[in-house]
Design goal:
The structure holds two protein chains of two kinds.
Chain A: H1 5-11, E1 15-20, E2 26-34, H2 39-51, E3 56-59, E4 63-66, H3 68-84, E5 88-91, H4 97-105, H5 108-111, E6 114-115, H6 118-127
Parallel strand pairs in A: 2-3, 2-4, 3-5, 5-6
Antiparallel strand pairs in A: 1-2
Helix pairs in contact in A: 2-3
Chain B: E1 6-11, H1 17-30, H2 35-55, E2 63-70, E3 74-81, H3 100-107, E4 110-116, E5 120-128, E6 147-151, H4 157-171, H5 176-190, E7 202-209, E8 212-220, H6 224-230, E9 233-234, E10 238-239, E11 246-253, E12 259-268
Antiparallel strand pairs in B: 1-2, 1-6, 2-3, 3-5, 4-5, 6-7, 7-8, 8-12, 9-10, 11-12
Classes of the chains: A alpha/beta, B alpha+beta.
């Protein structure tokens, strides 16, 4: 029997891609499988962006798997962004069921919140530039 | 072990959790679980493994053992270590947000953690599924420094080996072509039927390094290594052996000390 090409995509460890739009908003896209082994590189990317006071959108749409360590890094990023008054938003649009399920079960879909459309996330991240009271 | 029983031992490192996750997904696939349940199982097992990676050992990683046994309508998964048990840590880095155990609780049917100081810890997870029939015939496994898998011959072997070898090859940064070759070699081992394995289980040990996977198949009965190699001949297309950078039959012994053969091969990126 030939190998199932579908298995290959799912076993690739995760990748991170960073883009910036014209208004300076950073979009950090998380694809593939992410867990304890990739959490440090996600944390470094977020550290750098927040250190530069860059408004950031984390896009989970192409992720096929995330665990609690990834959720922890995102939650921590959200907390630090809020403290410093930096725009921060999370989007998961038509993504993997496995990621949906984890966001749902942990309550983070509403807690973060996680937007279902990129445009909504961009709006939140660019409009949240006010320092906390 | 049951007809689809599974044991996997890897060094308890963050990089090996994806290997365990893919292997358990292979088990679930072979058992016919729905894709949403496979996703839940991957999350639950990942979180249990994370606990071992973060809490069990100081310094060099010790063994992380995962055993899966299908039973009546449920899959029983045990994730165990030989470390010093769960200890509170002031700074746990990435795993500090406390979502792991709630995820296990929410996505499994039940779970429990046992162990104590100096005894290692064991997370036992019950995971319901709509089952084919299973038979009882249990046996515990051994522990090693390299990745070791023992599988009952049958439908479970191919999906587990394909996923594990695929995950390791991807981690070793193999190209897509070489990744496919690696999975083909795993398929060749899977299709051997298991009759030549000395203790009745398909045993595979894999060492991975940058750009190379070293695979040891066995213990095999006498002549089993040559038969496995001859089964890699594809009429009109040569041999799958050419996909490996080296392949040889070596002598060794079973866990019980009986003489045995192993088929050893290396695949390079």
């Amino acid at each position: 029997m030939p190998p199932d090409p579908g298995s290959f995509a799912s076993v690739r460890t995760g990748e991170l891609a960073l883009e910036r739009n014209d208004s300076g908003l950073a979009v950090l896209t998380i694809s593939g499988e992410h867990d304890l082994s990739t959490a440090p590189s996600l944390r470094r990317r977020l550290d750098n962006l927040l250190g530069d006071r860059t408004a950031t959108v984390v896009d989970l749409s192409p992720a096929t798997f995330i665990d609690s360590s990834i959720l922890g890094v995102i939650l921590d990023g959200r907390r630090r962004a809020t403290e410093k008054g930096i725009g921060f938003a999370v989007v998961h649009s038509n993504g993997a069921d496995a990621v949906d399920r984890v966001l749902e079960v942990t309550g983070l879909r509403t807690e973060l919140p996680v937007h279902a459309r990129r445009e909504e996330a961009f709006t939140e991240a660019t409009g949240a530039g006010t320092p906390p009271a | 072990m049951t007809e689809a029983g599974f044991e996997l031992t890897v060094p308890a490192t963050a990089e090996n959790v994806i290997v365990v996750r893919q292997a358990i997904a292979g088990v679930a696939e072979a058992l016919g679980l729905a894709s949403s349940r496979i996703a839940d199982l991957k999350t639950v097992v990942t979180e249990a493994c994370n606990n071992v990676v973060v809490h069990a050992y100081d310094g060099d990683p010790g063994p992380l053992q995962v055993v899966a046994e299908p039973g009546e309508g449920e899959l029983l998964v045990q994730v165990a270590d030989e470390g010093h048990g769960f200890r509170p840590r002031a700074n746990e880095g990435e795993a500090s947000m406390g979502l792991g155990l709630p995820l296990i609780a929410a996505l499994s049917d039940s779970f429990e953690i046992s162990g104590g100081a100096g005894q290692g810890s064991r997370t036992t997870i019950r995971f319901g599924y709509s089952p084919p029939e299973a038979q009882k015939n249990g046996k515990p496994g051994s522990v090693a420094k390299e990745l070791e898998i023992a599988l009952t011959p049958g439908v479970i072997v191919r999906p587990v080996l394909a996923r594990v070898m695929g995950a390791l090859a991807a981690r070793a940064e193999f190209s897509v072509d070489r990744l496919a070759d690696t999975v083909l070699l795993g398929d060749a081992v899977s299709s051997s039927g298991g009759g030549d394995f000395a203790d009745g289980r398909v045993g595979i040990a894999i060492k991975d390094a940058a750009g190379t996977l070293g695979v040891r198949v066995g213990p095999l009965v006498e002549g089993g290594g040559d038969r496995l190699m001859s089964e890699m001949e594809v009429p009109g297309a040569g041999s799958l052996r050419s996909l490996a950078s080296s392949m040889e039959v070596t002598k060794g012994e079973t866990a019980a000390g009986e003489p045995a053969e192993f088929l050893e091969f290396e695949v390079s990126s």
